[in-house]
Design a protein that fits this description.
Layout lengths: L2 E4 L11 E2 L3 E2 L5 E4 L5 E4 L10 E3 L15
Length: about 70
């Protein structure tokens, strides 16, 4: 079942650095992933999570909003 995350939630699903299977709704207000356990690679330029596999609902202090979200 798909999981949706509002654009103001600071988790991997809404982060610019997260590389995974995701989409956004028509209004640019929610990131949509196949499930909350969806995993993707962290592409942060530097930091402890760089290159690691992270779940959609994980968080970190280096979050930046995914540009397709408003």
């Amino acid at each position: 079942m798909a999981q949706e995350y509002p654009c103001n939630w600071k988790n991997c699903a809404t982060c610019a650095f997260w590389i995974a299977n995701r989409d956004c709704d028509h209004f640019g207000q929610r990131a949509i992933v196949p499930s909350s356990s969806e995993r993707g690679r962290c592409a942060i330029p530097s930091g402890g999570w760089r290159g690691s596999q992270r779940q959609a609902n994980n968080t970190c202090s280096s979050w930046q909003k995914w540009p397709v979200l408003r």
